[in-house]
Amino acid sequence: MAGDGAISKTNLKRILLVLNCLILCIGTTGGPLIIRLYYIHGGKRVWLASWLETAAFPVFFIPLAISYIRRRQSWATTTSDGRSGSPAPRPFRMKPILFIAAVLVGILSGVDNYLYSYGGARLPVSTSSLIIASQLGFTAFFAFLLVKLRLTPYSINSVVLLTLGAAVLALHAGGDRPEGESNRQYILGFVMMVLAAALYGFILPLVELSYNKAKQVMTYSLVMEYQLVMCISATIFCTVGMLINKDFQAIRREAKEFELGEFKYYLVLVWSGILWQCFFLGTIGVIFCASSLTSGIIVSVMLPVTEVLSVIFFKEKFNAEKGVSLFLSLWGFTSYFYGEIKQNKKKNQNQNQNHETEMNGHIIP
Ligand SMILES: Nc1ncnc2[nH]cnc12
Q1: Closest by CA position to 329, among listed 152, 130, 128
Q2: Which Gene Ontology molecular-function terms are recorded (predicted)?
């Protein structure tokens, strides 16, 4: 019976992992495509697009409520057995220090969402996705500074390749400039997208740093709480931007003028909120069930998919520079992940060896 329980627990974790992978795949390709759809057909509100990235945060209340109910049930069972005299579990367990960290990271995310949405308004999706590919390089760099990530020849190689990939695009900037857009607007969009990749590359290790300094055991539900607070503060930040820019008043007018019709305008807004939430929910889900490496792999693997879909749906040009940039990015990813896998293997081997030495020490005194 115990064995059955163990099997079903492993299966449950596998099912959860597959589910989160699917959610992440949908979010990482769907998010950039739907927001481009908004811009192409007459949407102009950058603050609104930024707001939509995190505005569907109430989604997080569903897994949090399930987790709370389960904790309460388990507490009620142990209490009625007389096995535990612990106080009833609280719906939110975050300590103040972690809460403050989540608020600060949320504000930075709000800034990042604005940079990303600004770039997305000016650039074709195929170009912006390739620029965002450089994010992995920035993450490695900032993780080295903030959480003392060890840089290996593989990760350094990948940083160089990913930077080169973005540089190839920059050299020929404007080659795929959308009709009616000035060169200045295009370049500004390009710079904003690079800044978004850099800032997001800074935010990820910052989140890891706050987990490390939390003085709390990070469980899945605690990570969800962190994400919830982060998304709420990013949404508040973007709401202020929308209020100052009078975006709320503009929504009805924009809906009336939207090329695909009013109903589809609101449909695009609702779906972008859902798809971006899939991106965030999938990312943390995969990190919890597997690792941040796996979540990075999925995002990278989906890059060519986004490229193909943007060429099919939006008839974007796929020129030689994009081909070279995509090749360099994929090479960079492969180098990075190969290095990571090799390092993890070595770590596991060392751990096993240490374990065996300890065991032998006990058996043969
Ligand atoms: N705001 C954002 N949303 C999605 N992906 C990103 N990459 C960098 N910034 C991003």
Answers
A1: 130
A2: purine nucleobase transmembrane transporter activity; purine nucleoside transmembrane transporter activity
> Does any ligand 1 atom lie closer than 6 A to the CB of residue 132?
yes
pLDDT digits (tens, 9 = 90+) for 286-295: 877 877 767 7
24 CB under 6 A from ligand 1?
no
Report the alpha-carbon angle 104-105-108, nearest 5: 90
Q: Is residue 43 part of a domain?
A: yes
The residue whose CA has the least distance to atom 1 of ligand 1 is: 113
Report field, pTM of the whole predicted structure over 0.90: no
Tokens matching residue 304:
């060519």
Domain assignment of residue 362, yes or no: no
Tokens 């609702």 correspond to 270
Range of the domain at 178: 18-75+91-352
Q: Which residue among 116, 134, 193 has the greatest number of ligand 1 atoms within 8 angstroms of its CB, and so is best to mutate?
A: 116
Report ipTM for this prediction.
Answer: 0.95
Please give the distance, rounded to the nearest whole angstrom, from the Cα atom of residue 78 to the centre of ligand 1.
44
